[in-house]
Structure formats: C-alpha cells, structure tokens
Amino acid sequence: MSNKYPFYMTYQMPVLFDDERMDRRDYDYMKSIYPGTARRILPYVEEECDRLEYDVSMIYDEYPDQLQMRMMCRRVYDRAKEAEDHPGKWLEELIQVMVCQELCQRRREYRGRKKRFY
User: Fold this and answer.
1) Residue 8 in contact with residue 61, Cβ under 8 Å?
2) What is the model's pLDDT at position 53?
3) Fewest CB atoms less than 10 Å from the CB: which of 46, 62, 71, 78?
C-alpha cells in the first residue's frame, strides 16, 4: 500500500480570501495597458487620490460631492496640461473618467478593509 496520503492532503483546499489579491492584480494589469496619454496622466490622478485618502475623506461618502470631484479633476488637469501638446476638453474628460475609476477602486478596497476588521 504505497502512496497513502492523509485525508487533508488528498484534495486541494481553495485559497480563501484570495479574491482581493486577484482583483488588485487584474486592476494593476489593466492600468499597465493604458494608452500613452492615460499612462502619463495616471501618476497625477493617483497622487491626487492619495492626498485625499484618509478615513473620513469625502471620497468615501455614499455620494461624493460633485464640486469636490470637479476640483480634484481641475487640479490634475492643471498639472497634466503642461505635459500635453494640445490639451483641451478631451483631456479634461479623460481625467474625469480616470479619477472616477480610481476612486471606485479605492472605495472598493476601503469597504473590503473595513469589513474585514469590524
């Protein structure tokens, strides 16, 4: 009777709580394949979001204030327009989409952390 294994070694156990790591890996990969302009703007967007990432920040409100969101986007635009040849309305709209997407991801991660510890 060779190769007898204990019961706990016969079936692979699913890795619990691995979804968050896989989600983060997917999100990082998607950011890596952004087009050139979006890739150049991304550090400005992330820096602005980092600046507002604290527990009682408006980015974690159920309905974030639209004026504050526009001000965030304007600060990013003011920094990013210097690097672009022909900034315009298209750049403002791209920044708005990127800020909203980044905030959605951060809110998702925040809810996951909050749920795990409480």
Assistant:
1) no
2) 87
3) 62
